[in-house]
Amino acid sequence: MRSFDLTPLYRSTVGFDRLFSLLDQATGVEAGVPGYPPYNIERTGENAYRITMAVAGFGENDLSIEARENTLTVKGEKTAEEGKNGEVLYRGIAGRSFERRFQLADHVEVKGASLENGLLHVDLVREIPEAAKPRKIAIANGNTPAAQIEAQAA
User: Fold this and answer.
1) Which residue has the higher pLDDT, 71 or 83?
2) Which of 6, 63, 95, 151 suits 137 as a labelling partner, its CA being 20 to 30 A distant?
3) Rounded to an integer, what distance in angstroms lies between the CA atom of residue 16 and that of residue 10?
4) Whole-angstrom distance, CA of residue 95 vs CA of residue 58
5) Quick one: CA torsion of 65, 110, 27, 43, rounded to 10 degrees?
6) What structural domains and CATH numbers belong to the chain?
7) Cβ–Cβ contacts within 10 Å for residue 30, how many?
8) What is the tens place of the pLDDT at every residue in 21-58?
9) 83-119: pLDDT as tens digits
């Protein structure tokens, strides 16, 4: 894959840091293994979403979820295995640490998370505040006082 150096753009622009970090992520400049762990993003309602990650072998104590500004970060770090008898001849279940980041749109909030059958479900909802929702503006007719003042001045 071809790598692009965005350094000259960083020097000549102000306020586009988020755009450049998105470009870096799109070009694959992400720490760790880019495809691990696999995940799905699905729409569960008009303003509801769910991220499902395959985290086989990780327990609730091994996972952490953090939402900061418009970024959701899911980290997994396996603690030392205790009480294992015997030696492992083949390890096909990945137990390596990971960190996966998701860029969230404005007004998207994490509503909850659950772990079942090796799948981590993170539920999201977009809640647009009343001030940002479109509103209908009434159009006044020519009989209003402001319209009469403007008509007399002309």
Assistant:
1) 71
2) 151
3) 8
4) 8
5) 130
6) 1-30 (no CATH), 33-153 (2.60.40.790)
7) 14
8) 667 666 554 444 567 889 999 999 888 999 999 998 88
9) 567 787 887 777 788 999 998 888 899 999 999 999 9
CB atoms within 10 A of CB 74: 21
Tokens of 153: 């001045």
Residue 99 corresponds to which amino acid? E
Q: Sheet harboring 63-68: ordered strands across?
A: 63-68, 71-76, 98-103
What whole-number distance in Å separates Cα of residue 59 and Cα of residue 20? 34
